[in-house]
Amino acid sequence: MATFLYKLGRLAFRRRHFVALIWVALLTLAGVGAASAPPAGSTSFSIPGTEAQKAFDLLEQRFPGMSADGATGRVVFKAPSGEKMTDHANKAAVRKTVKELRGGSEVASVADPYTGHAISANGTVAYASVKYKVSGMELKDSSRDALKKAAQDARDAGLTVEVGGDALTATPETGSSEVIGIAIAAVVLVITFGSLLAAGFPLLTAIIGVGIGISTITALASPLDLGSTTSTLATMIGLAVGIDYALFIVSRYRAELAEGREREQAAGRAVGTAGSAVVFAGLTVVIALVGLSVVDIPMLTKMGVAAAGTVAIAVLIALTLIPALLGYAGRKVKPAGEKSKLLGGGRKTKQPGRPNMGTRWASFVVRRPVAVLLLGVLGLGAAAVPAASLQLGLPDDGSQPVSTTQRRAYDLLSEGFGPGFNGPLMVVVDAKDSAHPKKAFAEVGKEIKGLKDVVTVTPAVPNKAGDTATITVVPNSKPSSKTTEDLVHAIRGKGAGITAATDATVLVTGSTAMNIDVSQKLNDALLPYLALVVGLAFLLLIVVFRSILVPLKAALGFLLSVLAALGAVVAVFQWGWLSGLMNVEETGPVMSMMPIFMVGVVFGLAMDYEVFLVTRMREAYVHGEKPSQAVVTGFRYGARVVTAAAVIMIAVFSGFIGSSEPMIKMIGFGLAIAVFFDAFIVRMAIVPAVLALLGERAWWLPKWLDRALPDVDVEGEGLRSVSDSAAGCHKDADPDEERELVRV
Question: Which of 204, 285, 323, 731 has its CA 20 to 30 A from that of 690?
Answer without folding.
Answer: 285
